[in-house]
Design brief:
mainly alpha, 17 helices
């Protein structure tokens, strides 16, 4: 029987895989912007469901689904109502302080002229890479962006991946509100359906689907809906198909009038299905709980927001210098490998040394003023 804590491990492993997909997506955009022109392999990666391996938007939706699940878990599993209040009070500080540090690092690097993305874009022909940091850094703007700008949906100009913090903060509050109000309602699954329709054109749908998955997998209802292996495989394929949506011609039949944001909708659905299959597949559970995947999972957040800084600085610098000695693809592989290794080292140090502070500070404030 699957233990209660193993579900958390599996989801942490999935977060590591999701972070890896986002990283790969940005490196492809930076160094292989015309991947579809790279022969049959490139076209297969772009125009078929194989694009899931670097579909960054799907990976972000996976993060959101898992957030909805994990934020609900203590409440559904242990009926811990105090966890809702505690999480709500501590959430902003736990998100803001690491974001502040990453934004200040970006500011310092801009002022120090150690970003090499413009020079690298001259070789990679990536308009996407070239478009970053086309403004004059300002310390007041950087601090304002970290304290409230990114959480109010304004542009994340210093660390662009932090656009997700708007959804992460407010999606967390939405999740906590839903479970605190409707958790004990007999009609809660009907309410989940209504809320899913209301938020179907936003990334908040992913959080609601995370709640549904958590409620379902921790309740007695699940025993009545055990799915067979063949049906698991069918769901897996459906999940991969939805998660790989990228607007290519083969997905045209999925365009329906009531959906405005196809990526948010289909990627949220696909991510939710893949999370469900992972929780019910012994093979996928073992993969997600393996040593190396768990390492990625434990550092997934820091990998996510530090990879952007490394990409625009170290990766581009190494790539430019390797080009004088190696072929294009060799220069990319070398710079990518060294950058990933650097990211892991920085993430490990950051988690062990820095991330304790926001956790301890937010816990102190909660216990002193809200208990």
């Amino acid at each position: 029987m699957q233990s209660k804590n193993s579900r958390i491990k599996e989801l942490i492993g999935l977060k590591g895989l999701a972070a890896s997909i986002v990283v790969l997506n940005h490196y492809v955009l930076a160094f292989y912007p015309n991947l579809m022109d790279k022969g049959s392999i490139g076209k297969a990666l772009v125009y078929t469901p194989l694009n899931i391996i670097y579909n960054g938007n799907f990976a972000v939706c996976m993060f959101f689904v898992i957030s909805g699940f994990l934020l609900s878990y203590k409440f559904f599993m242990y009926d811990d109502e105090d966890s809702i209040r505690s999480t709500a009070v501590r959430r902003y500080l736990r998100l803001m302080i690491p974001m502040l540090i990453s934004i200040l690092i970006c500011y310092i690097m801009m002022k120090s002229n150690v970003l090499f993305h413009i020079e690298a874009a001259n070789f990679t022909d990536s308009k996407w890479l070239e478009s970053h940091y086309n403004f004059n850094p300002n310390i007041i703007d950087a601090i304002k962006q970290a304290f409230f700008g990114i959480f109010l949906g304004k542009s994340a100009t210093y660390n662009s991946v932090l656009w997700t913090m708007f959804y992460e903060l407010w999606g967390s509050f939405l999740t906590l509100s839903i479970i605190s109000i409707f958790k004990k309602s007999k009609n809660r699954f009907f309410i989940y359906m209504i809320l899913s329709i209301v938020f179907c054109n936003t990334y908040f749908l992913a959080f609601i689907l995370g709640i549904v998955l958590c409620d379902f997998t921790t309740s007695e209802i699940k025993k009545e809906f055990e799915i067979s292996f063949p049906f698991q495989m069918i769901l897996l394929l459906i999940g991969i198909w939805l998660s790989s949506y990228n607007g290519a011609r083969i997905y045209n039949f999925m365009h329906v009038s009531f959906i405005n944001d196809y990526s948010a909708f289909y990627h949220s659905l696909g991510a939710a299905i893949l999370v469900y299959i992972t929780l019910n597949s012994s093979v996928l559970r073992r993969v997600c709980c393996s040593k190396y995947i768990m390492t990625l999972g434990n550092y997934s957040a820091t990998i996510y927001y530090f990879h952007w800084i490394i990409l625009n600085s170290l990766s581009c610098y190494l790539f430019i210098n390797f080009l004088s000695c190696f072929e294009y693809y060799q220069s990319f592989i070398l710079s990518f490998t060294l950058s990933i290794f650097t990211n892991l080292i920085i993430s490990k140090i950051f988690v062990r040394v820095v991330e304790k502070f926001p956790n301890e500070l937010s816990t102190y404030i909660y216990k002193k003023y809200f208990c």
